[in-house]
């Protein structure tokens, strides 16, 4: 159904323009509610502060975790926070997919000349993302300096951040699209993925069984969001692993768009 | 009036289990966080101990954390938040029903839907991982009593969090912040025993500590019977404090309600 109403001839330029305009409209809306912005941004910062506190408390009790030291772990947490916070800024509306499917609100978006996924993704901006990204970058920078990594690694850090953001946005989109088949108001699969990332991916992968490593690297490539770039930077993994970052990003985007498209095909509005 | 509470709780219960697959997966996946915690702390503790917890004690601690978090997150906080964000609260304000009491009934109904799965998951975890046994039969009984207070405490904390929706346009970020506060100050992320004294002081001054540290301390015998009763009394005090405190917050924030189109 979506394919007939969303022309395949939409150009990247048009899609980009729609995305940009929709996001700018949201930003204009934010400026109308400055109190809301500061409450939410502070909520985002709070998450980071407590993650910082967690690592500080932990490393006061142990010198290292599976060979990883304090500053490396700070980078691990910081990069995940930057990626997760960026999804709140760039595609927070995607979390509404389940609600829209239940209420039949996808119908309206199918009739407009822009990809449905872009329209859904830009229905909100999670303002906590500004706090998360800001403090997450502070954690990455503090960890980077503390770990003694030189300026030569800066391009790799920047590549890692870009790939992390792309992978995270794509995977959140993919898991929110599950609601096309498994109906429910909440995007539980995406929540579970984020929850698992916050529990497991803020720790070195060496702590977990081989199955977890295989899944997080090659099935749901969340390891490429933060673990692989930081491990490659700090010497825990061979440098050639960085090639996997753009590859994982491209694969995640293709998978997300494919799954969302399949979901739209199976979408039958509400009440049927 | 009680029949209204039961009706609202039943509706919330049925709503939770209406989306069976979503409900089932959310419970099943909750277990992954437990497994991640077990992997991390197994490595950190090894054959020794950390903060007074040896490996069997830490397993019990983590399983209690799994049980309490499964229960605490299963309520209807999104439904509460959406009523404020969508403006449905305007309809609620016209009803001859106390808003807070109605939401409490719905929240407890939602939590109750997760009880069978939470118990099943906990029993499975106990059988598989063989955690430390309770310090005594009395400690076990007092642990169960302390766990019952999770219901009013979870409602109080979540209701307070949803009040933020009067001044924000979105609940997701508030939810993440609340989750993080609870995970850290309850001791789920890292036991309070590992925190510096001043941070332990802050944690013990907040209600979150009763979600994990209190039941785990009672279960493992880290406090004696009198201490356990004191902690349970603190839980009761927090449940009451949150109930009446959120009423005051409500009275102020409801004046800010913005209903679209009105």
UniProtKB/TrEMBL annotation, chain A:
UniProt KW keywords: Membrane, Transmembrane, Transmembrane helix
Membrane-spanning ranges: 37-62, 74-95, 116-145, 157-182, 203-228, 240-260
InterPro entries per the UniProt record, alphabetical: ABC-2_transporter-like
Pfam families: ABC2_membrane_6
PANTHER family, alphabetized: INTEGRAL MEMBRANE TRANSPORT PROTEIN, SLR0610 PROTEIN-RELATED
UniProt protein name: ABC-type uncharacterized transport system, permease component
UniProtKB/TrEMBL annotation, chain B:
Keyword Oxidoreductase: no
Transmembrane segments: 23-46, 58-76, 107-132, 138-161, 181-206, 226-246
InterPro entries recorded: ABC-2_transporter-like (IPR010390)
Keyword terms, alphabetized: Membrane, Transmembrane, Transmembrane helix
Pfam families, per database record: ABC2_membrane_6
Name the record gives this protein: ABC-2 type transport system permease protein
Lineage: Bacteria, Bacillati, Actinomycetota, Actinomycetes, Glycomycetales
